[in-house]
Task: structure prediction
Amino acid sequence: MIEQLRSASGRDIRLLCRDKTWTAPTAGLALGYVQANLVIVPQVWAFEFLLFCYRNPRACPLLEVTEPGCPEPRRCAPGADLRTDLPRYCIFQNGQLVAESLELHDFWRDDLVAFLLGCSFSFERALLRAGLPVRHVECQCNVPMYKTNIPCEPAGRLHGSLVVSMRPLKPRQALEACQICSRFPLAHGPPLHWGDPAEIGILDLTRPDFGDPVPIYPGEVPVFWACGVTSQTVLQESGVDFVITHKPGHMFLTDWRDEDLARSQVNCYSF
Amino acid sequence: MIEQLRSASGRDIRLLCRDKTWTAPTAGLALGYVQANLVIVPQVWAFEFLLFCYRNPRACPLLEVTEPGCPEPRRCAPGADLRTDLPRYCIFQNGQLVAESLELHDFWRDDLVAFLLGCSFSFERALLRAGLPVRHVECQCNVPMYKTNIPCEPAGRLHGSLVVSMRPLKPRQALEACQICSRFPLAHGPPLHWGDPAEIGILDLTRPDFGDPVPIYPGEVPVFWACGVTSQTVLQESGVDFVITHKPGHMFLTDWRDEDLARSQVNCYSF
Result:
């Protein structure tokens, strides 16, 4: 089934999620279609979270924001329903995970605002196409992610530190990755650090805070990108009473193609 | 005095406004420093207006958003006070201009959120440096601005049509202007239309809705850019009860230089 789903469209995958035929992670599905992180907050937090995303665009690149109570992302996936079209959801109250669910009908409210944030799959595919190694793909595990000592720009009551993902590269490869990823500002953009992990507050690369450790081969340096998990840790640590997210790895499939992210039509909303 | 003020800094001009020594338009002052449109709305409208700016970045390119009640734009002008540091302000209630003022102490409230939006001065200076004509500068008048039939992307209750500014150029000059202005997404970016004004709902170029008409010489075509006045017409037409703006032409001077707008540090908030 996975082999067939590699060449499916974003909409195909959404419909399989909607009827609960697909409930697993989405890595490798509908290759070439942009996948998105989902973050849902009550409207009373929506201004602060939108401002947080605007002020921290590397960690939280905004693909779309829905109107309060509206579950349809009309821009990147018209006809989709964010309450049913992802494989799995996590529901948080006061920073604690209180439920995991295949759909949101029991949790949806008229005051909820959904934010879709770009994810690293888009730039990883571009790196692979350029012949650069993506270690956690080679190792068939999750990308390693680390909390750092880099403060995010706060927005109102929202504050916290940046979470980064790490991919080992040779220095020359890291420069090429910087060029490639700069074309994808809506998928976290270029790396923000490389080399000594201690400079950004990471003490032990073999023990990531999220995901799995990966080997670093001789001649390689660790290269760090801002990570969408930042939004979840910030919301949990800042006292937001109610948050819904996708289950990690179980992303939303849009109608956009990776290459669309490099087009002005998408980067610039109306023109 | 104007000659001296051409080489002043953004902060110099702000302080002259603060003690009411300067109360006139800011065109031509502190050359090279980024000037900004000011829009202030109550916090109950802040989410919708921030979303409107995010969805209409050509018309409303965000330089900075302040925390509710805070008059200091800490990012682009630390130490500045938005209540005193512009030459003149306009105060609107229910879409009607109710007062014009040299400062805002009688109007400031703890629930007000200030938005600073990029303005065309930055890209006009880049056009002039490239040897391209900027007709209203040659004519020493205001740029002509027109209401169009292009709908903005609505955001909640905020809706309306795009307002554009117009500069006549030869076709080859227009292409060069497109390249140059693409480097300044925070100053309205590239043009969004050229040629037949009727295609975007403009019936008579000699009668602009705002500003002054300018001549179009043989071989030139009208070239249209999204204009920051859009935000003011949208707020007025959408029933926002209380809005403060700069008086047209009486802009806020930041500490940023025009060239900073092409740097990733500024385009991308924290990194």
